Amino acid sequence: MQEIFKKLDLLDYIDSFSKLLAREKSIIMEGDINLHFRLINELSNFDLKEPPKVANLDNALLHIQKQGVLKIYEIYEFIKIIDYFNYLKKFNFEGKLAEWIDRIIIPAEVLNICNYFDEKSNLKSGINEDYDAIGEAIYRNKQEIKQSLYKIINSTKLRSYLVDSQVHYINQEECILVRGGFNHILKATVINRSNSGFFYVVPHSVSALKQKQSDLINKQEEILLKVCKEVSSLFEKNLMFLKFINKEFDRFDHYQARLFFAKIGDKNFILPNKKGKNKLVEFRHPALHDPKAITIDFSKSVVMITGVNAGGKTMMLKSILSATLLSKYLLPYYANKNTEVGTFKEITAVLDDPQSVKNDISTFAGRMVEFSKLFSSKSAIVGVDEIELGTDSDEAASLFKVIIEELIQKDIKIIITTHHKRLASLMAANDDVELIAALYDEENQKPTYDFLQGTIGKSYAFETASRYGIPHNVIKKAKVVYGEDKDKLNELIERSSALEIEYKKKIEKLEHEISEYERLNRNIKEQKESLDELIFEEKSKLHKEYKDARNEAKKAIKAKIAEGHQHLNIAHEKAKSIKTQKVQEIEQDLKVGDRVKYRSSKGEIVSIKGKKAFIENDAGMKMQVLLSDLKRSGNIPKPKQKSSVTVQKPSTGHVKLDLHGQRADEAIENLDKFISDALIAGFDEVLVYHGIGTGKLSFAVKQFLDKHPKIKRYTDAHPSQGGFGAKVIQL
Question: What is the DSSP string of 139-151?
C-alpha cells in the first residue's frame, strides 16, 4: 500500500490524514463502502467532539482472555471508549446512524465501572473506603515531612550551612541543600549533588516519616491491585462486548477522521460508481502547491496522453490514479463534487524504471514482467508512464497495440503517456481509445499545462531543449540531422490521425441525425394512429345520429307506410354509400423486439411462429395474436415497477443466549432466531449457554451448529464463561 502511495506522491497526504485518527491503524475500512458513505453523510449533520486518543488494546484483550490482571492505565483505555459511546447515545441520530448506535448496548455492570475513575485515570473518592483513608494518611504524612524539614531549615545551628531556605524535590524525595561540613551539625543522608558542589540531603529525623510514607503507598498499591483484579474479572465476563466495542470504535474513528479531513481545505467525498463513468472535474493533486485544476473524461478503456515534454503528462496520469485510489478508500480530496470515478478492484502504477543490478533485469524486460501480471487481473486500472521505455519505439508500438487490445477485452482500463506518435496513430481508430494532447504555447515557448481531448500532440523536443539552455547552434545541427523528411512524416502522422478523428466525429454526428430522424418518424406514426382513432370515433357518431334520425322518421310516417318506406330505402342506400377510409400503413415485416399495437394495447414482440406472434404488453401480460392484427408502434414503454423485499433489522441485539431448562426442539428454535438476529445486527462472535446435564441439549446444539451455513467455527467456552456447558460461536 505504501508503495503505490509513494509512486503517486500521496505519502504526505495520507500521513496528514492518519494524524487525525484516535489511534494508529490502516486507512482501509472493511465492509460496504456505500453504507460507510451514507453513515458519513448522516454524521456530517452533527457537531461532535473528536474521539479521545486511545492505545491499541489487542494485547489487553488477549490478556483478559487469559485471565490476566490489567494495569490501571489499561482499564482506563477501555473506559475512554465506553465513555465516548455513552456520549454519542445522547444525540438524536436518525436513519442508519441511529440503527448503528442503538445496536451498541453497553452492559450496566460495565457502564458502572466508568464511574470509578476521574479524567486522569485516578480512582475517584468514595469508591473504596480503605483507599480513601490511606490517601488521607499519605497527605497528612507529606505535610509532617514538610513541617519537619522547615523546622530543621529554621534551626540556628544549621543556618550557616544552608545554601537556601527552600525544600527541594530531588529523585522524588523532599530534601534540603547544604554546604560541606553539615555533618557536624545534622545527621542526614546525601541523595545528590548540585552543579555548584553543594549537597542535597534528607535528615535522619525525616527518614522515619519517609519510611511511613513508603509503607502507605505500598498499601495503596495493594488496594488498587485488588480493584484492578475485580475490574479485570468483570471485563473477562464481558470479553465479547469489549472486542465488539473496540472494533466499532475504530469504525467510528474512521468516519470522524474523514469528516475532519474533508473540512480542512474544503475537500469532497467521491463515491465510486458501477456505471463505468470516469471524469475528473477540477481535480487538484495534493502534492502540488497552487496546482492548475484538471478536468478530463477518462471513461473509455484506454487514455493515451501525448504531447510536449515537461507539459504535465505524468502528473495527469498520477492525478487519474490518485483520484481513483482515494475514492476506493473513501478519502476526501480536492475536486468538484461532480467528479465521477468507477469501481476498480486493483490499481497499478507502472511508473519507474525497473532496471538495476540488484534486479538483474533490463528496462524493457521489467516492463514486460509488469504487463504479464495484468493478464491475470480483472476490473483493474493501470497507469503506464512512457510505455515504449527501453526498446525500439516502432517495434514497441506494434507489440503494445496488440497487448492493449487484449487487455481491453479483460475489462482493464489503461492510462498511458508516450512521446512517440506511432502507437498513438495505430490506436487512434479504436473506439475504446481516448487521445489526449498536452498543449504548448508556441508564442511564449512553454507548456500551458492544459490538455485537449481527441488529438495527438507534438513533443516539442527542440523547443524544450532551447528553453532549458541548450545552445541554439547545437539545436540547429540536431534539426538538420533529424531531417525534413522525418519532420514531414510526423506531420503526416499527426494530420492522418486528426483526419481520422474528424471523420469519426462526422460519423457520430450523422448517427445522431439518423437517430433524431427515427424519433421524429415514430412520433409521426403515433400521430397517425391517434388520427385513425379519431376518424373511427367520428364515424361511429355519424352512424348513431343517422340511426336515431331514421327511427324518428319511421315514427313520423307511420300513417303513410308505403310512401315512407320508399323514402327510407332511398336514405338507407345513400348512407351506405358514405364510407370513411382508414389510413393504411405500408406493409412491413415485423420481427422480435419490435414495438407493436394490438387493438388498444401496446407492447413488444417476444417471439414469432408462422403467422402468429407472442407479445408482451406494457402491463406485463403475454398473449398470442395473428401477425396480420398487429401494427407498429413507436411509443416508449413505461418502466416496469420492480418489487423489493425489505428485511427489518432487530431494534436491539445481544451477544449471549441461555438455553438452560429448555427442550431440545424449543432450544433449537430459539437458537436459530438468535443466530439470525446476531447476523443481521453485525456481530462477529456470540456466546450460547446449554449446560452439561444429560448431554441431549448439548448434542442437539452441536448438530445445529455443524449444519448452519453461516457458522465459521465454534469452541467450548473458557472455564470462566461456562466451560463445556457453553459454546463461543464465530459468525
Answer: HHHHHHHHHHHHH
**Distance of alpha carbon 703 from alpha carbon 209, whole angstroms:** 68
Looking up cell 441511529 gives 98
Q: Pick the more confident residue, 369 or 551.
A: 369
Q: Nearest 10 degrees: CA dihedral of 61, 64, 69, 72?
A: 40
215-263: pLDDT as tens digits: 999 998 999 999 999 999 999 999 999 999 999 999 999 999 999 999 9
pTM for the whole structure? 0.62
Rounded CA-CA distance 419/423 in Å is 10
Euclidean distance between CA atoms 505 and 496, whole angstroms: 14
Q: Do 364 and 387 contact (CB within 8 A), yes or no?
A: no
Strand partners, 173: 170
Number of residues that make up the chain = 731
Strands 199-203 and 188-193: antiparallel
Which H or E run includes 138? Answer: helix 129-153
Task: Write the single-letter amino acid at 80.
Answer: K
- Tell me: pLDDT of 495 over 90: no
- Cα separation, 588 vs 632, whole angstroms: 9
Q: Is-contact 128 222, C-beta < 8 A?
A: no
What cell does 570 get?
332511398
The residue written with cell numbers 456470540 in the block is: 686
Please identify which residue in the block is written with the cell numbers 351506405.
576
Cell of 264: 480542512
pLDDT one-digit tens code per residue, 11-29: 999 999 999 999 999 999 9
All three cell numbers of 268: 469532497
- For 680-718, the pLDDT digits (tens) are 777 888 899 988 888 888 889 999 999 888 898 999 888
